[in-house]
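Field notebook, page 336. I keep forgetting to write these up properly, so this time I am using the form the group agreed on. The chain and the ligand, iron/sulfur cluster, are recorded exactly as supplied. Prediction of the bound pose follows.
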Amino acid sequence: MFLRDKLNRVHDYVRISVTDKCSLRCVYCMPEEGLDFFDDKTLLSTEEIIQLARNFARLGVTKIRLTGGEPLMRRDICAIIAGISAIDGIEDIALTTNGLALARNAEALWQAGLKRLNISLDTFDATKYREITRGGALSEVLRGIEAASQFPFVIKLNVVVIKGQNDTEIADFLKYSIENPVNVRFIEFMPIGHDASSRDKTMWQNAYQSLESLVFEEANKLARAFSPLDFSGNGPSENYKIVGAKGSFGLIHPVSCNFCASCNRLRVTADGAIKACLYWNDEENIRASIFDFDAFSEKIEHALSGKPENHEMALTENEKNSYQLPTWRHMSQIGG
Ligand code: SAM
Ligand code: SF4
């Protein structure tokens, strides 16, 4: 069985946010004043999350990513991973983390069955890291990466490229991909929810034509050839490898060059709402139907039937359509 929407897009990938709480307040993700976090009763329980994944597996989903807020803030994260790993049909389980609590959790995550880790790191400069994350300590993430590297995780670094903030460090990240067996993913800043009008922060076209040309320009300066890399399971990221590198680099540009036509993902928020599209406000709470498969399937089909063709991240305020609203949620309340 496959989950298809009205445009015949097959959905085999679900991102589950396990908490909206976070140990950081990154400038592109959460407001400076913070948010009122959901209370514990509002968050899906361990059993609900595992059952959710079972239901999705019955509907043809093969890949689950756990995200947040910060997923390592949940004490039961390893129990959740172990439960999902044991589900027939789930071939791939991944987790996205800010890495702050990774040093003390890496081994337990591996033992629980986690195979893939995306670690968010936007800069190698401790002062800039503190600024971007509003208070984080770079040394803790680096310790986390080091600890995770002791286990055979597939590791990706998520680098949100922010105009005027870390765009001078692209070469450093490319060099990191030469020296380390990781996939460094340069990601465009996405104007989401309350930030939906902050389109200017994503507009690489103005200064550099595109994030792609900016990264390629830096890669060319390294005077080492690079070529496209085709590895499956990478969704929207276009990947490249510099000759002789231990790792690789990728580009994710949902704004300047959207990949909606091949979107294969659904999202579930920490309070149990299904979102067929990251950008729009449409969502429906599915918590009450988690333990009733028929009702659950109906809700998912309903969400898919209303899935829009694309988002409006690249449009100016004047160009935007006026009858639909962008999501009320901040990125930390969806999970990326
Ligand atoms: N706390 C975890 C972390 O930071 O990795 C997981 C949740 S976070 C919302 C997931 C990913 O979304 C991170 O890699 C983060 O950098 C990215 N992200 C957050 N806000 C974003 C934005 N406005 N545009 C692009 N990426 C964003
Ligand atoms: Fe927290 Fe991740 Fe958002 Fe940063 S990007 S505020 S670490 S949820």
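OBSERVATIONS:
- Residues 3-333 form a domain with the TIM Barrel fold (CATH 3.20.20.70).
- The radius of gyration is 19 Å.
FOLLOW-UP: compare against the apo run.
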